[in-house]
Predict the structure.
Amino acid sequence: MPSQFKLDKVVAQNDSAIYKIAPGFGRVEAYIATTPYTRAICNDPKVCGIEYTKLLQKACTEVLKMLPLDGVTEADAMVANILRGGLNFGLRDALADAYGWNYHTTCFLSAQRAQSPIDGTWHITENSYKKLYFPCATSLYIGDVVATGTSLEYGFNELIDAAVEHKTDLRNIYFFTYGGIKTEEIFQRLDERCRATFPNFKRTVVIYLEGRFIVPDKNTPLTIRLPGTDLVRWGSLMAPEFIASQYEKASYPIERCTIYDAGSRAFWINEYAEDVLEYWTQVLKLSETGMSFKDLVEERFPDLDSSRFGKQDLRTIALEQIGAMDKILKR
């Protein structure tokens, strides 16, 4: 856990909890929420398809139950889905399950990022679809996975522009994410814009699921990494419950990414399984050239005590994960 940040437990119930991150970024309130459902998603890549989206919705429901409503009403609440990843969080249903609401608003917009083959920068390539409408007073609920934040910043600025056009009174933002620290950096700018634009704006709340994860770059000391895409355990700020869960199975702490590709994980399973399969095939090759399980744990999750796993064979673990992905591909 990075020493400059600390986690203060706000609330806990059953096997779930919410921690506040201190210090924060400007007036943005940042939290880490942990639930059995989000731990399962992070740890077990076999959780995909409908099972994945159902677990993520259940997690958001649990977190919403623990969050104070702070004056938000059913008439004010609006779920905004940034396509396609935002659909995975199921916030429309989560609000209904948590609070018994039925009439809250839902809108949609597209914002798909792509990486330039020339300089490696990220830009928006698909943004043509919008179905936006706002209550008179609006509290936004949004979920998305954030690595570089390219689609997040674009999508939110589009929402703010539309809110101004519709003459709505934007009051609160609640954002759920598997994401990295760029999330808060972006929301600090967005929060400042909202406070300057909407006289009754109250708060921006960022809720990281299980951790505020590191997004690797070319200098991150990991043998296998996808810069600008992965959300890795190495160097991250994580819920204590999530860290403890790594000891439940030897494969958990050495997964390449805590979420892999969130869109294909839900909607195009073959592409997702091929991605995970490619990683574990690389791990198998590493095991055949001398890397041990202990070596890989100490590289990818150095805060763990690798001796607690007992004697583990990296090749056996890799073959088991490869077999699991093969089974999904051949279903």
Summary: The domain at 6-213 is CATH 3.40.50 (Rossmann fold).
